[in-house]
User: What shape does this take?
Amino acid sequence: MPQAVKTRINFETGYAETEGGTPLVRVGDRLLPQRITVVVPCRAGQPRITARLEVLDGIPQCRELSFASLENGREIKQLDLRDISIADLVERTFALFSQRVILEESDHMVAVQDFGSGARAEAARIIGQARKGKGARKITPAFLAEVAKVYREHGEKNPTQAVQRAFDVSPRMAGNYIRKARDLELLPEVTDGRRKR
Assistant: This one.
């Protein structure tokens, strides 16, 4: 019976690995492992950091992050939390394992793993775009009707923030959605911060 083989990539401060048999999933023009474990071992008394990264619904994400002190190591401090950039961790780690699809036909697909800092930077950029949802959300009249509904439901208290939370976007993008909904007359115009009746 064939053994399931882990794939491990070492980097300066630790390693990332996939379990044997981890399926590959498509994200843009890349194939990524569905799950990756990242380990930054304890060094010089520093806490050990472990992260579980997964691709869910086409979006690479950090699903678990833990810190652990060694028996004789120092405690976990606020600076340990500040030193971790989740976006950077997810994008760079998945970029290490990414394979670029170069041919796709009905019955098969060919992908290659590009090497070098430029190739990894491009892979990280594509993964970052997938995480931000760029190009994934189509701004249709039906979508803008949903935006208008959320806005109206929270019209008396921070409607723009409600749109931001409901669609998981930046304040600027929420404002853009609201403006487009107004352009379609799904919401009333505003003057000096007050809605026209």
